[in-house]
Amino acid sequence: MSMACAQRCGLMSLVDQSFAGDAKGVGSTRILGRIEVRCFLTNVVLCGVSIRVLCAYGCPIYGAT
Fold this sequence. Notes:
The protein is mainly β. It has one domain. The protein is built from 1 helix and 3 strands. It has a 3-stranded antiparallel β-sheet. The termini are close together. The model has no long low-confidence stretch (mean pLDDT about 80).
């Protein structure tokens, strides 16, 4: 998730910055941290979700503007 999307959704206070670092691949960007969601209910499935928040500009990631 992009930092802009996390800010629009009001999730920045949930970012655990101990998981900050660098994401590298075809390009590179800074990982601001991780949002850990312990329980996520969708219809009849209960699962855990971990979302990385990226400081990305011009990258084709979810929520980037």
